[in-house]
Amino acid sequence: MEIQIKGLTKLYHSEGKTIKALDDVNLTIGDNTIFTLLGPSGCGKTTLLRSIVGLENPDFGEISIGDEIVWSKEKNIFIPPEKRGLGMVFQTYAIWPHMNVFDNVGYPLQNQGLPKSEIKQRVAETLKLVQLEGFENRPATKLSGGQQQRVALARALVARPKVILFDEPLSNLDAKLREETRKELRTFLCGLGITAIYVTHDRIEALALSDIIAVMRAGKVVEMGSPKKIYFNSDHKFVADFIGRANLIEGTITECTSHHATLKTAIGDIIGINNHHLSVGQNAIMCIRPEFITLAHTQTSHEKNIFKGVMENLVFIGEAYEGDIKIGDTLLTTTIEPTENIHDGSEIFISFSSEYCFIIAS
Amino acid sequence: MTQKSLLTPSLILMVGLLTICPVFMLVLGSFMDGFGTYEGFTLSKYVTAYTDPGLKDILFNTLIFTLGSASVATILALFLAYMNTRTNIPFKFLFKVISIIPMMIPHILFCVSWALLLNPSNGILNKLLIDIFGLSASPFNIYSLSGMILVEGLLDLPIAYLIIAPAMNSFDVSLEESSKVCGASNLQTLLRITLPVLRPAILASAILVIVRSLASFAVPSVLGIPGRIYVLPTHIYRMISTGFEPDYGQASAIGMSALAASVVLIYLYRYLTKESSRYVTISGRGFKPTLIDLKTYKYPLFTVVGILSFILIILPVIVLLYTSFVPYSMVPSFKAFSMMSLKHWHSVLVDPISLLSLKNSLILGVGGATIGIVLSIFVAYVIVKVRTRAAGVLESLSFLSFSFPGIVIGLGFMWVFVQTPLYGTLWTLLIGYIATYLPYGIRPLSSAFIQIHDSLEESSRVSGAGALTTMRRIVIPLLIPGVVSGWILMATMFVRELTLSVVLSRPGSEVLAVQILRFSEDGMWGQLSALGIIMIGISSSLVIGVTFIGNKFSRIHAS
Ligand SMILES: Nc1ncnc2c1ncn2[C@@H]1O[C@H](COP(=O)(O)OP(=O)(O)O)[C@@H](O)[C@H]1O
Ligand SMILES: [Mg+2]
Fold this sequence. Notes:
By secondary structure, chain A is an alpha+beta fold. Helix content of chain A is 24%, strand content 38%. In chain A, a hairpin with a 2-residue loop joins β1 (3-14) and β2 (17-29). Chain B has a single domain (2-26, 55-558), classed as MetI-like (MetI-like fold). Chain B has helices spanning 2-30, 44-51, 55-86, 93-100, 107-118, 124-133, 145-169, 173-181, 186-197, 199-215, 218-224, 232-241, 248-273, 298-325, 334-338, 343-350, 352-386, 389-400, 406-417, 426-451, 454-462, 467-496, 499-504, 512-521, 525-558. In chain B, α3 (55-86) packs across α10 (199-215) and α5 (107-118) runs parallel beside α11. Chains A and B meet through α2 and α4 of A and α21 and α22 of B. Bound molecules: adenosine-5'-diphosphate and magnesium ion (MG).
């Protein structure tokens, strides 16, 4: 089921100030995709999700799910959440404490007025799906965090919704469980063939789970694309920095080829991908991710993108070394193979492949 | 929308009228010459009241009485809380019982049972001791300042315990452990680490007990007046009831200082408890303190706890039951048991005033609690869910009555009602009760509303349930426990209410506690005990009945 959002704006008024929680958001979320809203806390992800579900009444714009307009300011349409046929997993899980697992999960079906026998069967099926077979009669308050999360998932899925929405569903789990559940969830959602909208502030979660990521900032969608596109080829400095560790070096473009360009920076000329077709003379930023900085053993530095620097702040973290390389006054963060023989103060040569450096307009 | 925005202001108006109005009228009244006619502004009431040479003694008595009760209650509470949370003392369920059950025994009956046991002329225990040891006079006199302090301290023990036990429970044990690592013994650790760290809770408990005993009327009237020991509430009571010319103006003038003291103390209490957040949720820390092994002291200490629970819970009921059957106060003996009869029960059950007071108290208990809980639901909803600045005002207003001594606020209501047709009817009592005990209804409902986090309702909406279904299946079932406990608290408070009633009740609007006070003043212990047992019976059946209905109701709605 495709979801279309046009010109969505939501204002909050508190203590005399007006906050733009959503600022003219336009999105199309394709059928059968796992779509993630990623952004720092307070950027409006939850507000957007709640507007789609119908728990929030925005100020301007239009939302349609499939062919149906569920909310529109101009056309004065507001379909209440219970009529939208969606499933949602809340950040706090919102498991009803006075009901057992069966009643929690069966609730959406009871609301549809299905016969008891069918409810029973479908609850059992769904509980099996989330690996909670036979938990029907447990009181909801006697479950662990992970189990509660799966009850919430079962409840969101049991009525076979067109779209399922998640609001930071893993943030209340401990680190190890979070990692396991993240993997499971991806497999699980792919198997269901369902449109999923997933809200998180955790970049790894977003990269690992999504088909498409939309990065938000201050109520706006800044950039949208596949995880690889967002990671390797962000269009915005904010996105490049938010989605992973990055060295951002400012400079001026001095030379352009068809795909690449040379940027004159404080450490020297760097060649990188010029996706945005910036032209000579423009100021730009080179983004180099630490894992693409490698040690160069050749002393012959006629090649491009080879620089000489001094190792600083080196720490051994098991799978690698992490440290800074000082070139002139510039510090570049890097990771280095754990097998290298290197220490603080070593003079080294580094190189970065021009295919993994990219230029962003500043 | 407009309905919703009107809710908060109208509640503020209603609660404001209930709590501010009597105070305002009290102030006004203290400057009036006559009662009922608001004319003739005068300072003479203050002059007369505060130049009374007897006032010095009364203030001194009040000071000793309140400080003494606070010490007794707080020290006992500390002892019990420590035993419960920190030691391997057996039968820990007793502590829960101690902290809850005594609230179910009306204060006036508790006082009466002590008077029956230890009064100097024919107290059962005194007589027993005289017989056993061949003494020439009664060894104990409960009609004394120390007797009053003891009984008031025991009465306020549950309150003190409910403040201190949670603090003791959430105490970070590593503070103690590091003290022991530094070489301190258990006792040194207790004195130098545990008690100082608990100081805010200890102070809070002491202040609350002081406020309570400053407002207490049962102990000073049942135990103080016979020994001619007057404290502020009984001093006020004397002014408006004895003699042929009650002076409401002078009583109000004295009441002002009790009110002021109480308000200041509550302010202090709030300040002290502000730090520890009001709505404590489950803490994430998973430590279990290692229990101190009491070894050989285990059973002696347990005996102390056992005796305390016996005194607090069982003894009063036994004494009353016994007294209601024997013809006059006598030491339990074969003779006493052979003379037992239903004489007193019979005379109570044919006494028209006792029957009327029974009826009135039932009406006030059931009707008042029902009206009160409806008001509480709305107030708690606004306080917890609306949370605007106006809602904050409402919250302060509705908890204001906590700091008003009952008899003083009763006086205020007298001034409010004297010119109205409500004067002397049950309505004055009903309104006064609700105004004074509103916090008892709001507390449990606020916690219920806090528990119903918005997302619980929202997830129901997303699951396809409309607003009404969500109300019926999610909100109401989760609210019911709060409604039930609020209702029970209010109803039991109303059935036993003494302090306000003693001022507001008039011929025709007698209530149980006032009738019991009359019996006690006249020394009619037999009838008193019979009526008291009936009162306990009513309270207990209200508790049991409503709990049962509440359980049933919430189960039906959940499935
Ligand atoms: N009920 C509300 N009243 C006022 N401001 C709100 C409310 N809900 C959210 N906001 C504000 O709107 C912005 C976006 O909030 P939210 O959507 O919850 O962010 P996120 O989920 O991305 O962390 C924040 O600045 C937040 O403070
Ligand atoms: Mg959020």
